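To whoever is on call:

I kicked off a structure prediction for a single chain this morning and the downstream step that reads the tokens threw a length-mismatch warning. I double-checked the sequence; it's 331 residues and nothing unusual in it as far as I can see. Pasting both halves so you can look.
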Amino acid sequence: MLGQVIDLIERHQRFAITTHIRPDGDGLGSSLALCWILRGLGKEAEVITRDAVPLAYMRLPGADEIRVVSDVDRDYEAVFVIECSDVERPGLPGLQNQFVVNIDHHSTTALYANINWIDSTAAAVGEMVYNLAKAIGAKITPEIASCVYAALLTDTGSFHFSNTTERTFKIASELVRHGAQPAKLSQAIFYNYPYAKVCLVGEVLSTLKRDDTGRIAWITMSKDAMERTGATEDDSDGIINYPLTVGDVEAVAFFRELQSDTFRISLRSKNRVNVARVAEHFGGGGHCNAAGFTVKASFDELSRQVLDELKEAVRNAPPAVNGSAREIKPR
């Protein structure tokens, strides 16, 4: 599939790149890196998104040029869709009428595009974009290196998750040689929170509960909490990782109220506890250690069902290999 992508780029001139709603570090970093690659090859390219760039990623090279749109509003020869499970995920209805290239590293992604390049061995889509740059003979500029590094950094949980491999560090080393500045990028992404986010963390963590075994924890974010703190839904990103830092906790559920009786549930786990199966039970999906779904239901009934499924997942989990944790970032 990489060959098809290269052939497409070489034969055409006008491209757009987009990623999912509420874009994250891999989605934005990979999109911007690809945009810089295409421009370096003499192509016309831009990044378009439905949602604005979160503050944490505003310092990535080219972030200030991203166009926020409600639909595909210009004429392109192809649109690259980055890290999206289906064609609806970017929130741009007109994509279904475009020539679409689907680039993702999630094995559960639907093959919805004209070209589908999926590599589930990649730590991040950024790794795939970097491989594309090398394969097509693009010059790796500091801008490209910085954006790919941000993608790797965020999708490996700052190199904490088990998708971090020898290959990940090899690529990171190459990116630094090409001009990426690790300390500068880390500070921009992780030490640049709005005050409202920190207040929201406090509100949400005050709801922390565990089951009687201590192996399952859950937290809840209400719409009222967001209003009290002045936070946005983007500010809730990463909060789920706090309960997972408790040594005995093996699985975590984060219930986010979107509107009355509608919730987005994020799931995380350690070791071999498979939360993807839990998410699939409710119509969602993801990785073994990171998954999620959105559902309309009453909170009391929903939380009971989710916790029952998590308990079953913990009971059925095989023993950890050498005690190693296997956290994987969600889509």
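Update from on-call: the warning came from a stale cache, not from the record. Cleared it. Sanity check on the structure: The radius of gyration is 20 Å.
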